[in-house]
């Protein structure tokens, strides 16, 4: 679906991470500042491990931009791994003077399956790429996509709604404020956030880890992004797939999602009304802004659940990949909880999918053409 695409490269402890984003129209103003702000947000969060004290992620734009505007060619983005200098022996491209292999597979990580599939003897050959360090590049890509969406009057925000069984009180949250504040856990219920932090503290003390749920909200999307015409053109499917592609995300729902199982049709669907000023409007948004695989003009709401981090300081029972003997899983330095970081990655992935749908619908060569096409389309819908 669509012509916007990206690819990332780099190992968690290699010298750099890189992404190439292709299909951004020419003439889009970009600010490194805005991208860096999101990179910093991704690094935050109570419960993150020692690595985040080492890194200060800053994007370098290496191609596709001149004097702050995109040229229409591939945009190359890069972030330095400061920690690499501490790992040059273990990450040596040729020869391995340190030579210490990781052989105790961590259940819940890519370790065991990866060494089998890629015929490797050292779990490090797998974990370097399976690590969610890679999500820094997704956030950089998402930053460029957010700039495109902003030029089209859209924004993507997120918040954490549950950690380790502690849920926010949704009635207390002013949804218009989401995206405007900043808190350690990207949470908009201060009382719940304190309880979440307490729970994370407890998990850390016990050598355990936690997961949770975040919500991504897309505001300002016009009617008709995506399509009902074919399975792979449905925007809800693309959004769900993009969320599931984030490391440790194990479930996604759009709008009321799994709650639909309890609701009769009379309470499930968003009834439609007409008002001279508001035009067609709804009083509810259970559909989460998507009907028939297309945006319906309401806020897009996506929730995703993150499983608890698989590296535990009180390690799980496992096997040694060489000897097949029973061992305890390896204890790499690790996060205890990274749901708030994942919420920022969720924003980035949603921004990419929506930007791709925008470029597909309105054209991807020049921002001027894209905006003219979008405005003409909106004028038609408004009956002008
Ligand atoms: C932002 C973020 C940070 C993460 N930090 C860690 C970590 O410190 N330690 C760890 O074992 N897993 C961490 N994970 C999860 C693993 O990367 C993930 O579970 C692993 O790659 C296996 O993929 P799967 O869970 O999707 O099957 C993190 C995930 C995200 C999104
Ligand atoms: C580096 C990041 O997250 C990492 C994700 C991760 C994993 O297994 O996914 C393991 C940890 O890596 P390390 O052993 O180097 O501390 C996290 O810190 C990051 O988010 O930038």
Automatic annotation (TrEMBL):
| A GO molecular-function annotation | chorismate synthase activity
Q: Which CDD domains match?
A: Chorismate_synthase
Q: Which cofactor does it need?
A: FMNH2
Single GO biological process annotation from the record: aromatic amino acid family biosynthetic process
Q: What class of enzyme is it?
A: lyase
EC number, as in UniProt? 4.2.3.5
One short Pfam family name for this protein?
Answer: Chorismate_synt
In its keyword annotation, does this UniProt entry include Cell inner membrane? no
Catalyzed reaction equations: 5-O-(1-carboxyvinyl)-3-phosphoshikimate = chorismate + phosphate
Q: Which UniProt keywords apply?
A: Amino-acid biosynthesis, Aromatic amino acid biosynthesis, FAD, Flavoprotein, FMN, Lyase, NADP
Q: To which pathway does this protein belong?
A: Metabolic intermediate biosynthesis; chorismate biosynthesis; chorismate from D-erythrose 4-phosphate and phosphoenolpyruvate: step 7/7
Co-factor binding comment: Reduced FMN (FMNH(2)).
* Family, similarity comment: Belongs to the chorismate synthase family.
Instruction: List the protein's name.
Output: Chorismate synthase
Q: Which organism is it from?
A: Schwartzia succinivorans DSM 10502
């Amino acid at each position: 679906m669509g012509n916007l695409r990206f690819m990332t490269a780099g190992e968690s402890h290699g010298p750099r991470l890189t992404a190439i984003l292709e299909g951004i129209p020419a003439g889009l103003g970009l600010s490194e500042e805005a991208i860096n702000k999101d990179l910093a947000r991704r690094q935050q969060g109570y419960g993150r491990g020692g690595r985040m004290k080492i890194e200060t992620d800053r994007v370098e734009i290496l191609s596709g931009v001149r004097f702050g505007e995109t040229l229409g060619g591939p945009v190359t983005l890069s972030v330095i791994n400061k920690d690499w200098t501490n790992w040059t022996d273990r990450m040596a491209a040729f020869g391995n003077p340190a030579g210490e292999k990781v052989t105790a597979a961590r259940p819940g990580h890519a370790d065991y399956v990866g060494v089998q599939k890629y015929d490797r003897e050292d779990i490090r050959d797998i974990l370097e790429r399976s690590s969610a360090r890679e999500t820094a590049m997704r956030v950089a890509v998402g930053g460029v996509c957010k700039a495109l969406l902003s030029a089209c009057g859209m924004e993507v925000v997120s918040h954490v709604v549950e950690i380790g069984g502690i849920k926010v009180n949704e009635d207390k949250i002013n949804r218009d404020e989401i995206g405007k504040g900043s808190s350690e856990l990207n949470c908009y219920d201060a009382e719940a956030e304190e309880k979440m932090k307490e729970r994370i503290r407890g998990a850390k003390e016990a050598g355990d880890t936690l997961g949770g749920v975040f919500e991504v909200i897309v505001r300002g999307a016009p009617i008709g992004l995506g399509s009902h015409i074919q399975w792979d053109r449905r925007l809800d499917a693309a959004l769900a797939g993009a969320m599931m592609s984030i490391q440790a995300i194990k479930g996604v729902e759009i709008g009321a999602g799994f709650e639909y199982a309890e609701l009769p049709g009379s309470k499930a669907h968003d009834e439609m009304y007409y008002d001279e000023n508001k035009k067609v409007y709804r009083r509810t948004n259970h559909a989460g802004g998507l009907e028939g695989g297309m945006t319906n003009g309401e806020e897009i709401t996506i929730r995703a659940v993150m499983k608890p981090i698989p590296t535990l300081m009180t390690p799980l029972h496992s096997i040694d990949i060489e000897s097949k003997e029973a061992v305890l899983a390896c204890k790499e330095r690790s996060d205890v909880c990274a749901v708030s970081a994942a919420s920022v990655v969720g924003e980035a992935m949603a921004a990419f999918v929506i930007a791709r749908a925008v470029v597909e619908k309105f054209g991807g060569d020049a921002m001027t053409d894209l905006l003219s096409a979008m405005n003409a389309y909106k004028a038609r819908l408004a009956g002008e």
